[in-house]
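step=encode ok
step=design start
structure_in=
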């Protein structure tokens, strides 16, 4: 495993960039896939957003200053790409974000790549009822087991605010699961 600082240096070096980018993709594609998948819910859409994320990383690595960890920077790009994708998709279909969420949840049951059972589906429905920021925070903390400090870097927000948002999200999900 290559050190992050060395990888960044290689990504910025035209002679080593191609091989370094291959290492980057192989190192982060699965984590980023599941991060994006929990936002857009659909396998094919996730693949598209993931590809766009890596394209943006490749094009913008020269501007990466190293003020945060590389993966935090990439997660931020992936998050923004996924949210932009959803906004664009709802706009194209002429429906609200909530209607799009409901549509995506309905399609989730028919998705051959969805391996969850009824409980997983119910959890996804509960998560879909959360406001966007709480949804992101809950997914990163619960599913990806990221530390609050890491989420803080990714979402560029305070740890205290994250803890409060996560607590509220967990309470809302708990209430949803009890009622449904």
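sequence_out=
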């Amino acid at each position: 495993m290559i050190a992050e600082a060395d990888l960044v240096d290689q990504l910025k070096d035209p002679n080593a960039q191609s091989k370094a980018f291959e290492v980057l993709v192989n190192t982060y594609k699965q984590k980023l896939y599941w991060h994006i998948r929990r936002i857009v819910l659909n396998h094919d859409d996730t693949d598209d957003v993931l590809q766009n994320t890596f394209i943006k990383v490749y094009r913008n690595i020269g501007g990466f200053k190293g003020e945060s960890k590389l993966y935090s920077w990439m997660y931020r790009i992936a998050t923004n790409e996924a949210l932009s994708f959803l906004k664009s998709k709802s706009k194209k279909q002429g429906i609200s974000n909530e209607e799009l969420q409901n549509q995506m949840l309905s399609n989730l049951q028919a998705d051959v790549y969805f391996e969850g059972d009824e409980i997983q589906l119910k959890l996804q429905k509960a998560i879909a009822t959360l406001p966007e920021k709480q949804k992101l925070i809950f997914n990163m903390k619960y599913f990806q087991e990221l530390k609050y400090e890491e989420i803080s870097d990714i979402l560029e927000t305070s740890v205290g605010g994250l803890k409060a948002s996560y607590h509220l999200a967990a309470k809302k999900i708990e209430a949803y699961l009890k009622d449904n």
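step=design ok
step=annotate ok -> The chain is about 80% helix and 0% strand.
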